[in-house]
Write a structure and sequence with these properties.
The complex is a heterotrimer of chains A (about 90), B (about 40) and C (about 375). With about 90 residues, chain A is an alpha+beta fold. Chain A is built from 3 helices and 6 strands. Helix content of chain A is about 35%, strand content about 30%. In chain A, a hairpin with a 5-residue loop joins strand 3 and strand 4. In chain A, helix 1 packs across helix 2. Chain C is α/β, with parallel strands linked by helices. Chain C has a 10-stranded mixed β-sheet. Chains in contact: A-B, A-C, B-C. The interface between B and C is medium-sized, with 21 and 42 residues. Strand 4 of chain A pairs antiparallel with strand 2 of chain B.
């Protein structure tokens, strides 16, 4: 997971909120809460060029919190909020 | 696979085992919800 | 680690609604006896096309994810498709609710070709005998034809929305089967004594025995059916909560914009008591959502009030504010359909119930006729 380069699905809207953010996927209609502002920063940093590890560094996520963040990113992958960048960019 | 449309899905944090001295902090960071059943939502 | 629950985060209010209900017009070709908006005649002060586009532009800047368009009958508006297209172009999804009268095969094809658009057809009975006394002569056939038009156009899954009444509780399995035949999703919603519903409430609302049937049916089917958030007052019936968020989102997660641009907490409380402002105010919709007194009040933690001694408040949350308000009950007390029976004595001593001042019903009402 840490070495993967990921990006937000183009049909996902991400909206900051006091508790973190809301994400809505226009294709599969899923609505997801991001429960911490740091996770929003990580997701915003996943621009299709950075690895997960680099995005966690950008957000300054301490190592004690990283397993929770990795689980969160996995579930965002499962719901297609995140994915592999397109081959052509 | 069909998702239940109405329940919130909790994503369990990874079980805490640490090979350094920092205690692992478990946070539930992502929750999927559905408001499709809410009044006024079509 | 003390993290507030997700529902707590939702109840204290969001920077923008996740979505909202937008009644495009009070005009309607039907006169359903329970119409929550007392629709029928167009209001002369209806938002213009330009104003409607302006609302959508503002919603886009707030990143509202989608709008739930209704009415009256939204397809009556001549600019209906212009409004839909404008929303989609701005990145706002569209879900809309219709009685189907204007859903011709050509329009069904146009809808099928529109991205990020969902359709819901209203129906209250499995046959004309059950449906038409509530929704009007010919309305069952109209709805079924609209569903067939959507199916023929390859629209894909649509929704069928029923309001549960005393007369259709026994048809829930049949509604599910109907939805399954079309590959549609069933929505089951609670009747509220709002709009014209205030007059038909006492004849139409489910009996307490039927409420138990509804609860059991929803426990069994609720994962495949949209509804839980409309029936959370039933949660006091058992240990297991109904599927869904089981919270009132009015003024917190969602709200209503009415055909003349007035903003209310939800479609069931079109009354000054729950009016938050207007999109025509200086601060626009965002000013109303963020700063209105009405919404600030709703976002404060709600206390159990008279329900504190019951012990079930955590499960039922005191029920629905619209159901209480329009039966003349205090908002900090039991729901009129309280499953523990606290509603009945409260109704006996209730004062006259408030009347929705906004009434666009056409002069000749369609009366309930029993066979």
């Amino acid at each position: 997971m840490l070495d993967r380069v990921l990006t937000r699905h183009p049909q996902v809207a991400l909206r900051p909120e006091p508790f973190g953010a809301l994400a809505y996927h226009y294709d599969n209609r899923k609505l997801i809460f991001l429960r911490h502002p740091d996770l929003l920063t990580v997701v915003q940093s996943l621009d299709g060029r950075r690895t997960v590890a680099e995005a966690l560094d950008v957000a300054g996520v301490a190592s004690s919190r990283r397993p929770s963040f990795l689980a969160a990113l996995q579930s965002l992958l499962d719901s297609e909020m995140l994915g592999e960048p397109a081959l052509t960019r | 696979m069909e998702e239940p449309t109405a329940s919130s899905e909790s994503i369990a944090a990874i079980a805490a085992t640490s090979d350094d001295e920092d205690e692992l902090i478990e946070e539930l960071l992502v929750e999927e919800i559905s408001i499709d059943g809410m009044c006024g939502v079509y | 680690m003390n993290q507030p629950s997700l529902v707590d985060d939702l109840k204290s209010g969001l920077d923008a609604p996740i979505c909202l209900t937008w009644e495009l017009t009070y005009a309607c070709n039907l006169q359903c006896v329970h119409c929550l908006s007392s629709s029928g005649r167009r209001d002369p002060d209806e938002l213009t096309s330009a104003e409607a586009f302006g609302v959508l532009d503002e919603l886009a800047s707030m990143q509202v994810f989608y709008v739930n368009i209704g009415g009256g009958e939204p397809m009556i508006r001549k600019d209906f498709f212009d409004i839909v297209d404008h929303a989609v172009e701005r990145g706002i999804g569209v879900k809309f609710s219709t009685n189907g009268a204007y859903l011709t095969p050509e329009r069904a094809q146009r809808l099928a070709a529109t991205p990020y658009l969902d359709v819901q057809i209203s129906l209250d009975g499995l046959d004309a005998a059950t449906n038409d006394p509530v929704r009007g002569k010919g309305s069952y056939a109209i709805a079924r034809r609209a569903m067939d038009n959507l199916a023929d156009a390859g629209f894909g899954p649509f929704k069928i929305s029923i309001v549960v009444t005393r007369h259709n509780v026994g048809q829930l399995d049949g509604f599910k089967a109907l939805a399954d035949r079309y590959g549609a999703t069933l929505r089951v919603t609670r009747l509220r004594p709002s709009g014209r519903g205030a007059d038909s409430w006492h004849e139409l609302h489910p009996t307490s025995v039927q409420q138990r049937e509804i609860y059991r049916w929803l426990l069994e089917h609720g994962a495949d059916v949209l509804t839980g958030d409309s029936f959370f007052h039933l949660n006091a019936l058992g240990e297991q909560p109904l599927p869904g968020l089981n919270m009132c989102g009015a003024g917190r997660v969602v709200c209503l914009i009415d055909p003349i641009g007035d903003v209310y907490a939800c479609p069931f409380v079109i009354h000054d008591e729950f009016k938050a402002g207007s999109v025509r105010d200086a601060g626009g919709f965002s000013g109303v959502w963020r700063n209105s007194h009405t919404f600030r009040e709703l976002r404060r933690p709600q206390s159990a009030g008279a329900c504190a001694s019951c012990g079930q408040f955590d499960a039922c949350q005191g029920g629905c504010m619209a159901a209480k308000y329009f039966t003349g009950l205090p908002l900090d007390g039991p729901d009129p359909e309280c499953v523990n029976g606290h509603g009945e004595p409260a109704l006996k001593v209730a004062g006259p119930h408030p009347i929705m001042a906004v009434d666009h019903s056409r002069a000749v009402p369609i009366l309930l006729s029993r066979r």
